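STRUCTURE REQUEST FORM
Protein name: Probable cysteine--tRNA ligase, mitochondrial
Source organism: Anabas testudineus
Requested output: structure tokens
Priority: standard
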Amino acid sequence: PFPCVSMWRFPGRSVLRRAKVLCGVFTAAQSACSFKCTSSGKRWIKPSGFDTGLKVFNSLAKQKEPLILAREGLATWYSCGPTVYDHAHLGHACSYIRFDILQRILSRLFGITVVHAMVITDIDDKIIKRSWEENVSPTVIARMYEEEFKRDMLSLKVTPPAVYVRVTENVHHIVAFIERIIRNGHAYATKEGDVYFDIGSIGDRYGKFVGAVDAQGEPGSSDKRDQRDFALWKRSKPQEPYWESPWGRGRPGWHIEFSSVIACNENHVFGSQLDIHSGGIDLAFPHHENEVAQSEAYHQCGQWANYFLHSGHLHLKGSAEKMSKSLKNYITVKDFLQSYSANEFRMFCLLTKYRSAIDYSDDTLSEARISLGTISTFIHNAQAYIKGQLHCSPVQEAVLWERYLVKALADDFDTPRAIGAVMNLVYHGNCQLQPVSTSDGVTRSPALFGAMVSYIQDVLDIFGIDLLHSKADVSSSCGRLKAVVEQLTHFRSEVRGFALARQNSASAGSPSKPGLYPERIPLIEACDTLRNDLAPLGVLIKDRGASSTWEITEGKPSQKGQRDLDKDQETSS
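Status: completed
Returned output:
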């Protein structure tokens, strides 16, 4: 019954519950509401249903509103997919990662099943032009870049949608969609064989999004009734791909692709009602505006999508322009991953609100890398404390437990505030993990730090960041490297402990290091040299009194990490 579905994926739910959820999606989606061409059509209608307890900024209402779903525990979500004619770049990736984070928050923190659909635009003017340049068919171009896009998203840990839909596999449904809009009195065909949506037929309902006022419309036939009218069907030109239709040979317009495939009839994905629609802010007008107009005209309903979420642009620092293929100012995902990790780009996205524009630069990425490094170092230190390798003063447990905060995520997915709460917890945890030379008789709190580590890892997992299985941990050779570093650090600690042993007389020993055995001082220096030589190789050894901890980092240590090593060198003996 789902001919347009190319892949289904539902993580972490029972098969029975999935079946019930899907049954509810495809039956409840058929209800329709009245379609009246009045000025009230611009006003957002608060839906009835299940109140999630979250608030989101809804572009339709132009303010934060309670997130209310048609069915309890289920969100239907559609996002605009790529036009596959070239490599995916970081501007695309930033938007997809941000909405992936939002979906993860809904599903993993608030227990809402997200049924996410995405349309792949695999026929378009740009694809046709690229095929002429490469002297291959448009299908070859589209399939090649579609697969590359999917690989890039997986490399950035973006959860695939429940369903991918290709436009070219659903043209017959698009034709039927257009025919119904014409029957409903909201579209017309020209003598040349184009079909346009009739903006005038819906009165003042057009203009829900910022940018619609004084719109000039798209270029097209001189037979258009209104310059704002947009193409639903475009007649074919010589040497272009085409499909047969009641209006002659042609292909779908860009705006109609998404609405018709996702929301057309009983055999398709969401029917006449959609909970959430997402995309970049540049798509709000005219693309999303036109999607709404044609979908509500087709279904004769007052509100097709209840919530529109728009992400801010990614800019190269110092530029007012968004990162874009047309402006030739983009960085491909593949090139980016040569220098940075998926975890670092996710943290980069988390440090700003999803609706905000974000500046791309080495400095902003360095901030993300340092934040991840700080969290990773705390986790290593806490684990060393739990194992008894790090000795500290008594821990003030109440101070740490008060730092837990995830309420920010219920307020329009405020990830900067949530990350701030995590970093605050890490800061206060680090304040408690100060090494002491002796801990005899000190009450230990390993359960507390175990809970803190689990909590932080769970929060990061919600965001799609896994510090335990980073790029450096994938191969089995890394596992062997860790075992070697563990043994090396243990041997070094034994040697260092022997060298730091004090003589009975405090006045004995070296003048510069009173109490130590002079003949053992070279051993201390050799231990320090080994620690410093390993740091540039990504193995950081930190001396904690008489014991030591270690961690493996990707690349060279940060300036903060180097300062910590210098401090260790000053105080190690």
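Reviewer notes: The longest helix spans residues 362-386. The mean pLDDT is 83.
Form closed.
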